[in-house]
Amino acid sequence: MKSLKQIINRYIRSAAIVMALVILVVIAFAEILIEQGRVEDTAAGTFVRLEQIIEENENELKQVKEKYDKTCLHDAEAIAFLLQKDPEATNDTLKLKKYANLLELDEIHIFDETGTIVSGTNPEYYGYSFSSGEQMAFFAPMLTDKSLQLVQDAGPNTAEGKNMQYSAVWSADGTFIVQVGKDPQLVTEAMEKNEISYIFHQLNISPAIDYCAVDSETLSVIGATNADMGGRPWQSSVFLPRACKMRSTAFTQILRGNTTTAFLRR
């Protein structure tokens, strides 16, 4: 028969083991909370940086576009001035092409007072008018207001669907419209820097963490630090489905082995 001392020692040992297990569980839980808090803080800081990057890129795009628009308009004015001084060049395709090369233009078009192309660097465009398509119709208001000087946003042109940016002004004597076209490479490059996919590709973050952007309409990954995630459906990934209902675009942090989610309003 066990003595009272032995019984007490057995219970003490049992209590010590239980207490040790409880302490270990508490420590483990505390470490999980601390790690989760650290991850969330890291995510929050990264999302703030993402907002800054997007804002910086948007400001840069605005400045590039404004500068490019002014350049396009100045080019149109320069061609109109040259043709006013050299009226014979108005119907001389070769000379117009020389002027285009001089100012690094891709196209020059001469419209008559009805808004129809009658001359220019591209004979295949002759006969197109402001009523030929939505893109060209942008300049139609110039027919009723000769004081207008218009610059169009880059987009597919009517004749071939190629990406161009056009600007147009009236000649000084008001007898024809000069339109110039340029390949909007600088604007396109600036716009690409503001794409979600570009921004996420440029993020320099720990390889243990994946950042991605999910579009709630298509439910697909539109940008990610992990290239393998790009274009994947939301449901096929390890994301939380409820996240896509919270924001039009959700920025989500996935910690390998432990999922933590945060969101950035856009």
Keywords:
single chain; 266 residues; alpha+beta; Beta-Lactamase; 2 domains; six-stranded antiparallel sheet; four-stranded antiparallel sheet; 5 helices
Characterize this entry briefly.
42% of the residues lie in helices and 18% in strands. By secondary structure, the chain is an alpha+beta fold. The model is unreliable at 236-266 (pLDDT under 50).
Please explain how this structure is put together.
By secondary structure, this protein is an alpha+beta fold. It has two domains: 68-189, Beta-Lactamase (2-Layer Sandwich), CATH 3.30.450.20; 200-266, no CATH class. It is 42% helix and 18% strand. The chain is built from five helices and ten strands. The protein has helices at residues 4-85, 93-102, 134-137, 185-192, 196-202; strands spanning 107-111, 117-120, 150-151, 155-156, 163-170, 177-182, 209-215, 220-224, 249-255, 258-259. The strands form two sheets. Strands 1, 2, 3, 4, 5 and 6 form a six-stranded antiparallel beta sheet that branches. The protein has a four-stranded antiparallel beta sheet with strand order 8-7-9-10.
